[in-house]
Amino acid sequence: MNMQMNPQVDSANDSTQVQPVIEARDLNLVFGAGDTSVQALKDINLNINKGEFVSFIGPSGCGKTTFLRCIAALETPTGGSLAVNGMTPEQARLNRAYGYVFQAAGLYPWRTIAKNIKLPLEIMGFSRAEQDRRVAEVLELVELSGFGGKFPWQLSGGMQQRASIARALAFDADLLLMDEPFGALDEIVRDHLNEQLLKLWARTDKTIGFVTHSIPEAVYLSTKIVVMSPRPGRIHEVIESPLPKERPLDIRDTPEFIEIAHRVREGLRAGHGDD
Ligand SMILES: Nc1ncnc2c1ncn2[C@@H]1O[C@H](COP(=O)(O)OP(=O)(O)OP(=O)(O)O)[C@@H](O)[C@H]1O
Asked: Do residues 65 and 75 lie in contact, with contact meaning Cβ atoms separated by under 8 Å?
């Protein structure tokens, strides 16, 4: 397989104005009103550029999922602005600007893997031939070629999650939003899927927003780590990773990796202190 690495775009040195994929300015979201209201996001300012792999890490309830859901136009911010590819999140959703992978694989048990992947394509009116072509392509990307005819229950948890990623890739959107996709899997399977996801990212040059509770996972995968703090959900710190794009698993034993993991841990601790 020809694994072409895409040249890293160094946005800091790029003098031309490149439009960010995600641009959040003073973004706020308050659920409800009065005494029972919850400020889920407070003054979020963040740019995500094309090809970045951005992880969101923070304690439970700090707004990670809510931020992803705002990008996907599944929640409406109560203040500030949010642009996805220069559009409103609603426009971006209509343009199929992103694929979304949820915590649980969420596959229909009565449909085969191929038919699960096809479902959104059927709804969008893609031709049968195009549906078949895309299913074969995304199954290959997640290394599940040959499993299209199986039902979800015939696959392991890790394979189901890969099938769910394949479904999110089927529209070939440049942006992939992933909400703790590997949280429920054991560590060895998770390591393997992390490796595969990095390869997929390198092959496709997609922009990825990824929610996790795991410091090693965030550091291993990301070019940028957004450390969030709770009540109300804010960005405590954004850590740019100096690690190379090509990352074997044993990079986790290097001093550079351990140093970034340490910074993330310190950020999480300090963020708790912001309470
Ligand atoms: N629909 C809703 N109505 C009211 N409050 C909500 C709603 N959705 C989320 N919240 C609250 O907003 C805050 C942020 O929730 P969110 O799910 O984004 O956090 P999170 O960081 O993703 O948490 P976790 O790590 O547990 O998934 C929490 O206090 C949560 O209870």
From this structure: no
Specify the ligand 1 atom closest to the Cα of 63.
18
Q: Quick check: CB of 112 below 6 Å from ligand 1? A: no
Rg for the chain (alpha carbons), in Å?
19
Ligand 1 centroid from CA 71, angstroms: 15
User: In 50-89, which positions are buried (b, 16+ CB within 10 angstroms) versus exposed (e)?
Assistant: bbbbbbbbbbeebbbbbbbbbbbbebebeebebbbbeeeb
Q: What are the tens digits of pLDDT across the range 140-149?
A: 888 899 999 9
Q: How many residues are present in the chain?
A: 275
Return the sign of the alpha-carbon dihedral for residues 115, 116, 118, 123.
positive
Question: Strand runs (DSSP E) across 74-179, as ranges?
Answer: 79-84, 98-101, 175-179
pLDDT for residue 15 is more than 50:
no
pLDDT for res 215: 95
**Domains contained in the chain, CATH given:** 23-97+175-275 (3.40.50.300), 103-172 (no CATH)
DSSP state of 87: B
Q: Which of 29, 30, 31 to probe ligand 1 with, by most ligand atoms within 8 A of CB?
A: 31
Ligand 1: centre distance to CA 252 (Å): 31
Q: In whole angstroms, what separates CA 15 from the centre of its chain?
A: 27
pLDDT band at 9 (very low <50, low <70, confident <90, very high): very low
Where residue 273 falls among pLDDT bands split at 50, 70, 90?
low
